[in-house]
Amino acid sequence: MTALPSALEAGDTSPRRIVVVNAGIGTSSSSRRLADRIAQKALDQLTVQRVPATVSVIDLGPLAGEISHAIVSGHPQGELLAAIQTLAAADGAVVATPVYKAGISGLLKSFVDILDNDLLIATPIALAATAGTARHALVIDDQLRPLFAFMRAMPVPTSVFAAPEDWADPTLGRRIDRTAIELATLVASSIRSAITGQGWDRYQHTWGGNARPDRPQEVDFDTDLMRLATGGAAMPGTSTVTGSSAMTDRGAGAA
Hints:
The chain is an alpha/beta fold. It has helices at residues 30-48, 64-73, 78-88, 106-113, 139-150, 170-188, 191-199, 224-229, and strands at residues 16-22, 53-59, 92-100, 103-104, 124-130, 154-155, 160-162. The chain has one domain: Flavodoxin domain (Rossmann fold). Strands 1, 2, 3, 4, 5, 6 and 7 form a seven-stranded mixed β-sheet that branches. The longest helix has 19 residues, at 30-48.
């Protein structure tokens, strides 16, 4: 089996950036505690691989007001915008949410709803959730994994769920270790940069968005709209949607 190249083998010694997105709202929430353990283990793994790395934390609780405003206005500002820009620059992420009424945190879903569809392309993500009962264990695979698949991120194979009785169980520690190893390996390989560096122009992007601000904004002239605007004709068998039926929502039409 061929191993992914390490950062040193590739000659890249720049620090890797891991970002924790915590949807827990308590000052010492179990979601934050679980996310911190995963991030620290991933950091330890990167240290073993001699890959410099940093960890930043985005606590969504204090940003709830700004998230609500951005949902309505469509324009994140202030600390929320800074948090989005931090996530956009991440080489990997840990996303942790409490489970309420058989579903992920509405705060987390609202935060993801305001992200540009291309913000997390090829970003390795460790998924974690906490709940008051083990009956919610499937929420990660049922709700979190499809959500980040839509965002074209790269959730690692192992996810971590913790109910109250799990914290004293050694099995939880082993799952955290597995998740951290998977995340650290992908982060060390710079897989996000490798994929977006070669294929960025092959994805749909949000004009003027927060993803990859270092990249120049390019206009795709090979579309029906641009052909019509320049006096040409639409491709045979296609139609142009206009007026109120056009899809304008930020979350519509990711490819």
